[in-house]
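Subject: Protein record for review, amino acid sequence with backbone structure tokens
Why sent: The fold of this protein is of interest and is recorded here as tokens.
Enclosed: The protein record, placed directly beneath this head.
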Amino acid sequence: MPPEPELSPEREQPPERKLPPEPFESWPPPTAIVPAPDGSSVWPLGVLAGAASLARFELPAGAVSRAVSHATVQELWHVVAGTGRIWRRQGDRTEVVELAVGSTVSIPLGTAFQFRADGDGPLLVVAATVPPWPGTQTEARPETGPWQPTVHGDAGAG
């Protein structure tokens, strides 16, 4: 069997990726509470420009959010405290799943969703939004969910 040819140095190295310099950032603990279009309270945590934003959401014990869908973003939620349920709908597919500490759910682009806090304490979620939350009045679109909302405030906030 002939010996294997030696690889040239160019082939041994993966191609170098040239990314624009992005400065790293740090944020203090959040103090500003923003009302979400679904009626929950939001603490913005940070933003990677053009890539994603991170926020903490809170829904009080016994509360039910408004049902919405997003026009341009999708989210990953991770439950850090409390219990509850989330309803999601994509076309004809509908699902309700339990939310508990440690569970993670996705909300793909255009998915209608509604959530509720079923435990004795608030439901706390840390969520990544991709791309970053745009803060426009048209991002969250009202939907019809399975539960009667109990939250108050501006449904158009964002």
